[in-house]
Amino acid sequence: MVRTYAIAYIATAIAFLVLDALWLTTMAERLYRPGIGHLMREGFSPGPALLFYLLYVGGMVFFAVVPGLEKQSWPHALGLGAALGLLAYATFGLTNQAVLRDWPWHVTAIDMAWGTFATGVASAIASAVVLRWLPGASH
Q: Of 80, 85, 101, 120, which is least surrounded by CB within 10 A?
């Protein structure tokens, strides 16, 4: 079981990091800089970013990937991952919307859509990889 969780964590981390890196490298200057550039650093702080990815990937494994493995269904992981992504990114965006001056609605909406998509797809990919490499992984 530990092997299954380790492979699930690694597969989830790779899938999510690839998707998020593509998103951030293509959208940071197009979406975030024009909308919230006055709040952004020139670079990024690696410590909080690393902690976010470690924790968020763990949440994806716990709340989406493992339940997908238990049902032997990557579509189940996709749905649970999408729900988790919506909730997590809505928490960030809507909280910012509520407490920060001049936080644009379109940034919140697009970020929520991205979180839903990326978390769902990465959870599905990770679940499919584990199911393929470790048949019967839920047992």
A: 101
